[in-house]
Amino acid sequence: MYKSAELQCSGSEAGPSYESLQTVFDRKPFRPTLNYSRPTSVNISFTIYAVLGVNEKSQILTTFLWLRMFWQHEFLTWTPAKCGAVEKISLPVEQIWTPDIIVYEFIDEDKSQRTPFVYVNHTGRVRYDKMLRVVSSCNLGIFHFPFDVQNCSLTFGSYMHTVRDVRLGLALPVEQILQNSLQYLETNGEWELVRIEGSPDILKFGIDEWDIITFWVVIRRRPVLYVVNLIIPSGFLMLIDIVSFFLPPHSTDRASFKMTLLLGYTVFLLIMNDLLPSTANGTPLIGIYFSVCLALLVLSLLETVIITHILHRGKLSGSVPGWVKSFVLGFLAQLICYKDKIDFSPPVLDLLPPDALSSGAERHLAFISQNLRMVREVLESKQQLQAQEEEWVQIGYVLDSLLYRLYLIFIGSYAIIIISVWCVWYNT
Fold first, then answer.
1. CATH number, domain at 218?
2. H-type helices in 30-136, by residue range?
3. What is the mean pLDDT of each run of 10 residues along the chain (428 residues)?
4. What are the TM regions of this chain, as residue ranges (predicted)?
5. Residue 120 and residue 175 in one domain
6. SS3 376
7. What ranges in 109-223 are assigned the alpha helix state H?
C-alpha cells in the first residue's frame, strides 16, 4: 500500500529513486488512481503523415498517423526541488499502465514501429506518442470517380474500460489537428487531405457505455492522371468519329473506318480496365460514360450501314415513292436547311421529228432516223434510271445530314451533363 502518492528521491540522486519507481512498475496492471471511483481522463490528438492507399474493392483506407495521448498517473509525482530540479523523465512504456485506446475501424494488424518510451513530468502527466499504420474500413463511394471525395471515420476509444474508468477528451482543437496534418503530410500522391471533423460521443452496448471520439477524415482524389489517361483519349476517339461523317456517304471507306475506330475503342477499354475501381455495390460514372461512348460508336456505324443501304437501293428498286420524296426532300430538307440539291433533269436530245426524216427523198435517211430514235429511247431510259438513282442518293444525303446533326446534339448534351455532374460534385 502507498503511504504517499509522491515519489521519493535519494539525497545524491537527480530524479526519483529506482526503488520508488520499481514500486510503481509493480502496480502496472492497475489503473493509476488513488480513488477508483474517479475515472482517468485521457486526452488524445493525432497527425496524419500519409494517405497510403484506398482500396475501393475491399472498402479499405490505409493511413499513417502519429497518435499522441495524455493522462494523469497519480503515482508518478515528485517534487523537483527534492529531486535535483528534475521535472521530466522518460520511462519504458512496458513498465507503466497505458490506456487501451484503439481505432474501432481497424481491420488489420498494426505493423508500424513501436515507441519504447513515454515522457512523465513531475505532476504525473504522461505523454505517449504512438505511430500507427491504420488499415480501416470505410464506406467508399466510387460513383463520381475520378472526381470523388471520400469521407472516412476514425473512432478512438477504449477497448475494455467503460466511462466509469476512462474518459476521453481532445488534447488539441480539431482545427489545429487539421493544420498539423496539412503541414506534415508527406505524401503528394493520388489523394489530398481536405478537412478533418471530430466530436465526442458515447458508445452504448448493452448496459455498458464507452467514451469515444469520432473523427471524419475527408480526402479528395487528384484526377489529373485519370483525365489524361482515360477521359481525353476517349474524347479524341469520339471527335474522330464525328469528323468521319465528312467522308462521302456512298464511299465504302466510311464504314471500314468506323469499324476500325470501334475496334480501337474496344481495345482502349480493355487496356484501361485496370485503372477503373470496382465494387459490388455500384458502377462509377466514368464506366457509364465509356459504355455510352461505345454505344454511340455502334450507332454511328449503324447509321453508316443504313445510309449505304439507301444509296445502293436506287440500283435495285424503281422510282422513289411520292410520300418519301415529299417527306424527305421536302419537309426534312427544309427542316435541316439542306441546300445541296442536284438537278436531275435529263438533257433533251434535239432530234429531227420522224415525219421530217421519213419524208426525205433518200431511203437511207429513214433508216438512220429509225436508228436514232432507238438510241434516243435507250438514252432516255438510262437517264430516267439515273435520275431515280440520283433521287435515292439525295434522300440518303438528306438523311445522313439529319442523323449527323442529331448525333452532334446528343453527344453535346451528353458531354455537358457529364461535365456538369463531375464539376458540381468536385466543387461541393
1. 2.70.170.10
2. none
3. 64 73 88 89 93 86 92 90 85 91 86 86 92 90 85 92 92 92 81 90 83 92 86 89 82 81 90 74 81 89 81 63 63 65 47 50 67 69 61 73 85 86 74
4. 224-247, 259-276, 288-311, 406-427
5. yes
6. helix
7. 174-184
